[in-house]
Write a structure and sequence with these properties.
The structure is a homodimer.
Chain A (H helix, E strand, L loop, with lengths): L7 H8 L3 H7 L1 E5 L1 H9 L6 E4 L9 H11 L3 E4 L2 H7 L8 E6 L15 E5 L5 H14 L3 E5 L8 H6 L3 H4 L2 E4 L1 H10 L3 E5 L5 E2 L9 E5 L8 H6 L2 E4 L11 H16 L6
Helix pairs in contact in A: 6-11
Chain lengths: ~270, ~270
């Protein structure tokens, strides 16, 4: 059992909270029973699983740890309460924290089915908002989400958490804006920019064919390059305060509108 | 200037974080330039405004304080940095915190226009979710929101904050479930329960006539009494994880669907 707060592995885990260390080490953190289950279901390989029994709160935690020990190429490391408190990112942890190699989610690997529905998060800043966008994308069954590097890192532990693990169940890529725009053009995907300055309402956009919904940042919205490259600009109706709807709620509304237009074919 | 952390008024402000003290004192807290502006615009009377210049961050703060001093029946109390840090509820405060008498928001005072659209928050637990529901209600221009006492208090400082002040711009009432149900029946309002167990999709509900959307708690959803009393039960489509959509997202989607069905008559 690791009990020293000075242990080199403990220090490495703490480093992975920062994007630059995740990028240089090619590793990221997944904390929590539910999130780790989602990652395992999505075949994300785990390298190390840190466990602390005192924090176990989910009834199936021991079963999952045992299963991983028997079936996965993983190192399982029990740690003391103090060490776990140090490496844990969230409040009310449930005693599981995994280190996993960053998936090579590449734009050109994204599968494009006929009439595919995509969401492009060009610059979402808040982890909670990006997590919510991923949850909505999961609920409506999008074919993929592209997260541009200008925004928060989709492998940020708070995004993994806020997404409730849907970051692993939705096809996600991390990409530069240029490669996303080239990909959209190459596949003949209709791009719909969500921007409060548009004349048309989002309900007037045709989201039945292959399309990508473009969402900007919380404060500045979509930048000029995204707006100029888009095929159509739409807005949500608002009779209230100018900015009462945030980017995550706007994305949620647009994704469910796309699902409504497409009918209940694929919905449960 | 109040500089003592032991000052009786300072202690009273801290007490008001708790619902039972808000209820016994008939007072609540409004923190932040934006939220206080919304309250003033909505003619919520303020009793005391605590100010701390060192935290002022909005360019119009001094103008607002001066205006209140000249035009409102309010006591303006500058406090020291330490005192403000003690009474402040939020992170990154902007140096303004007001105490206001709790509005007498009563069910029977709610104006019911023809084809009114209402949202009933029967038991929302998390302040952030209730705040988001109020923001969406503001955006689509609902005619009223009823917040039942089973959930979090709508005058909780975190709700006021998360609503970005829309708690003051949307017609809100606080009520017991029985009086909300009686009011719905009396006004011939069609009540639509959002519940994952429904057969029908929310898009099949007719939300053009007078209607109320019923939302339950984060964990248990709507209770049996609400489900049995409702005219119709609907669900959101989901192909993803069972609970990937939370109550605030579901309310937002349903409110925008109502707005879509009603056309853009009232939208800007």
């Amino acid at each position: 059992m690791i009990t020293s707060l000075q242990n080199a592995r403990v220090k490495q885990v703490v480093r992975l909270r920062q994007r630059r260390h995740r990028e240089s080490d090619g590793l990221f953190l997944i904390e929590g029973y539910r999130e780790i289950r989602c990652a395992v279901d999505a075949r994300v390989g785990l390298k190390v699983l840190y466990t602390c029994e005192q924090f176990f709160s989910h009834s199936d935690t021991r079963k999952l740890v045992r299963w991983l020990g028997e079936n996965a190429d993983i190192s399982i490391e029990p740690v003391s309460r103090d060490v776990f408190a140090k490496i844990s990112v969230r409040e009310n942890s449930d005693g599981l924290l995994a280190v996993a190699p960053s998936p090579a989610w590449l734009m050109n690997d994204m599968h494009v089915p006929p009439n595919g529905l995509f969401l492009i998060s060009t610059a979402t800043e808040k982890p909670g908002n990006l997590g919510t966008i991923l949850r909505s994308a999961d609920a409506v069954g999008v074919d993929g989400v592209a997260v541009c590097s200008a925004g928060t890192d989709v492998l940020n532990p708070s995004v993994v958490r806020a997404s409730l693990g849907t970051v692993f169940s939705v096809p996600v890529v991390r990409a530069e804006p240029e490669s996303v725009r080239a990909w959209i053009k190459r596949h003949g995907i209709w791009s719909i920019a969500a921007t409060p300055d548009a004349d048309r309402l989002y309900t007037e956009a045709d989201m039945v064919g292959p399309c990508a919904i473009l969402m900007g940042s919380e404060h500045a919205g979509l930048d000029g390059e995204w707006l100029n490259s888009s095929d159509e600009r739409v807005r949500l109706p608002s009779v209230g305060q100018a900015d009462s709807i945030n980017v995550a709620m706007a994305a949620t509304v647009m994704l469910f509108e796309a699902r409504r237009q497409r009918g209940s074919r694929r919905t449960s």
